[in-house]
Amino acid sequence: MPIHHDQLIDMVDKIPTFQESVHRILALTTSPDCSAKDLVQVIEHDPILTIKVLKLVNSAYFGLSQEVTSVNHSVVYVGINTIKNVAISVATTGALPKTNKAGLNMNRFWEHSLAVGVIAKLLAEHKGVGKNEQANYFVAGLLHDIGKVLFAHFIPADYQQVLQKSEVEKIPLHLAEKQLLGFDHSEIGAMIAEKWQLPTDLISSIRGHHTAVEQEQTPLSLAIYAANQAAHYLELMAQAADNGDQYALSRATDIDNSLPADVKTWLGWPLSEVSKWLSNLDEEIDKALAFIDLSDGE
User: Fold this and answer.
1) At residue 289, what are phi and psi to the nearest 5 degrees?
2) Which of 90, 204, 267, 268 lies 20 to 30 Å (CA to CA) from residue 97?
3) Cβ(254)–Cβ(206) under 8 Å?
């Protein structure tokens, strides 16, 4: 059952690389001299990417008051950094396997990923992060668990046992992965992000969303750790409220009490208080559904 590091590398090698246009967008947007004109030219030479960018920019997520019909206007309205993150979202959701035989529920996977993305963005907004940079937080939350998909797709029989162990023993999935596989999904998630040459702080946030790596801590990685725990906290509190599940209430309290000191300091509040800021979470998640609809929108 334990897997070797070479097997992780083999799984990552089987995932397709991004199309050239996405690599060019990532390269362009890391330069302080990136111009909107250059970015528009790259997107417009990729018809599928153009369609998806326009579809997303016109979605309820951005809430623009008028329809945007050109890539040039998209960049003007939402900014270069947001377009970069749209390209990352399009490329990653398109490259990841859609199905698996392990029993990983992909609807629940994306629901949780969206929740973490939206919570991270709302936390960033609350912390005074600039609107243009908030897209980094959303996308990091959206992608934080991508390693689960690789495990479920490439080692379905083993991962089915991981899922069962987590459910039967009521332990977090990443701990069941560590115990049975020897690695957890954050490690292989960071490896695929490195293969895709995603931004360094995004890779760090994927790697550290369960075990905050001190030397890699940034506001983004702290936010993703906090957002992931907040999503689990809210889910458990909802279970406790719906059916009086005292075990769920106890686990939620444990999550709040066991936040690492650096995450607590960054948040400034316990999750029990943070959850009060998230009263519009369901509404924001509904708007963000456009991000995961893109892979089927060709």
Assistant:
1) -55, -25
2) 204
3) no
Question: What does the alpha-carbon distance between residue 142 and residue 91 come to, in Å, rounded to a whole number?
Answer: 13
Q: How far apart are the first and last CA of the chain?
A: 39
DSSP 8-state secondary structure symbol assigned to residue 296 = G
Of 52, 110, 121, the C-alpha closest to 280 is 121
pLDDT tens track for 159-218: 999 999 999 999 999 999 999 999 999 999 999 999 999 999 999 999 999 986 665 689
Please, what is the Cα angle at 268 between 250 and 224, to 5 degrees? 75
Query: Tokens for 199?
Result: 């931004």
Which of 164, 156, 159 shows the shortest CA–CA distance to 183? 159
By the 10 Å C-beta count (0-12 exposed, 13-18 middle, 19+ buried), 226 is classed as: buried
- Report the b/e string of 130-143 with b at 16+ CB within 10 A: eeebbbbbbbbbbb
Determine contact, residues 215/132, Cβ cutoff 8 Å. no
Contact 144, 116 (CB under 8 A): yes
20-24, 200-204, 250-254, 292-296: lowest mean pLDDT where? 292-296
Residue identified by tokens 């009086």 is: 244
The model's confidence at residue 295, banded by pLDDT at 50, 70 and 90, is low
